[in-house]
UniProtKB/TrEMBL annotation:
Transmembrane regions: 26-51, 58-78, 98-120, 140-162, 206-225, 237-260, 272-291
Pfam family, any one: 7tm_4
Classification lineage: Eukaryota, Metazoa, Chordata, Craniata, Vertebrata
Keywords, comma-separated and alphabetical: Cell membrane, G-protein coupled receptor, Membrane, Olfaction, Receptor, Sensory transduction, Transducer, Transmembrane, Transmembrane helix
Subcellular location: Cell membrane
Organism per entry: Eublepharis macularius (Leopard gecko)
SUPFAM superfamilies per the UniProt record, alphabetical: Family A G protein-coupled receptor-like
Family to which this protein belongs: Belongs to the G-protein coupled receptor 1 family.
Coiled-coil residue spans: none
Identification of the protein by name: Olfactory receptor
Primary residence: membrane
Length: 310
């Protein structure tokens, strides 16, 4: 009977906001605005960093990769969530669900490691300014990004191999998208191995980079306090403020969603917290890095101002 269940799962039902039809129109409008900001903002950052030679530095190389990841995160889920706003209990095919879920895992783990790498870059810039370019050579930067993608891919592949095969019930996911924790709650098979790996990987992929960032910024803070001039301190802090803001938003939602214990059944709170990560983080990153960064704003006028004058 369990084997039969595996062959009959052709699609899942996504609850989303189906129980609140009056809220769906407002939700669609907010989501569309958020998606456009994320799509245009992250796309613009990638274009500016590639097009402007002034931004060809390790710091902006990592920002370019981060914006690329955020661009993919938003496009992995945003369009489908917006389309589903017009349907009552929309469905998603089994294999589309798997692709959406594991691509999401790959991207979010990659972003965890990238934020840790960016913290190390700021540490090298502030604490070892005279040796910064020797430390953060292009070969080393590319190797760090490759390692983060490799570790993320390994974690995702293990999750795929531990994927449950037997499902029971009505195959209803109480979520806006296919999400790993909600997916595992539908299975009838033994999920102890999968849940154990998810807990271990949460510690390694989320908490370890987070602890590294905290330790790195403690050392940065101590170095900043040793700077004698107020102007020097402000300049050092300004190079870290954008990254600190992004880290606070990103890790705040991720830790609540994936590290803190949750009940067996999916709740509306889980959906909202997960949505905050999937929606707010890709939108806020370009706003934080463009509105508070004179280099990026200068690159915008150099690239597009030249095009307009031509």
């Amino acid at each position: 009977m369990e084997a039969a269940n595996e062959t009959t799962v052709a699609e899942f039902i996504l609850i989303g906001l189906s129980e609140y039809p009056k809220a769906q129109t407002v939700f669609f409008s907010l989501l569309l605005m958020t998606y456009l900001i994320s799509f245009l903002g992250n796309g613009l950052i990638v274009i500016l960093i590639i097009a402007d030679p002034h931004l060809h530095t390790p710091m902006y190389f990592f920002l370019c990769v981060l914006s690329s990841v955020d661009f993919m995160i938003s496009n992995n889920t945003f369009p489908e969530i917006m389309i589903n706003c017009f349907f009552y209990r929309p469905t998603i095919s089994f294999y589309r669900c798997l692709v959406q879920m594991y691509v999401g895992v790959l991207l979010f783990v990659t972003e965890c490691f990238l934020l840790a790498i960016m913290a190390y870059d700021r540490f090298a810039a502030i604490c070892q300014p005279l040796h910064y370019m020797q430390i953060m050579s292009w070969r080393f930067c590319i190797s760090l990004v490759a390692a983060s993608v490799g570790l993320s891919s390994l974690s995702t592949v293990i999750n795929v191999l531990l994927r449950p095969t037997d499902f029971c019930g009505q195959h209803i996911i109480n979520h806006f998208v296919c999400e790993l924790q909600s997916f595992l709650k539908l299975t009838c098979s033994d999920t102890r191995a999968s849940e154990l790996f998810m807990n271990i990987s949460s510690l390694f992929n989320v908490m370890l980079p987070f602890c590294f960032i905290v330790i790195t910024y403690v050392r940065i803070g101590l170095a900043v306090l040793r700077i004698s001039t107020t102007k020097g301190r402000k300049k050092a802090f300004s190079t870290c403020s954008s990254h600190l803001t992004v880290v606070s938003v990103f890790y705040g939602t991720i830790i609540i969603m994936y590290v803190m214990p949750h009940p067996k059944s999916s709740s509306d709170q889980d959906k909202i917290v997960s949505l905050l990560y999937g929606v707010l983080t890709p939108m806020l990153n370009p706003l934080i890095y463009t509105l508070r960064n004179r280099d990026v704003k200068g690159a915008f006028w150099r690239v597009f101002g030249r095009k307009i004058s031509e």
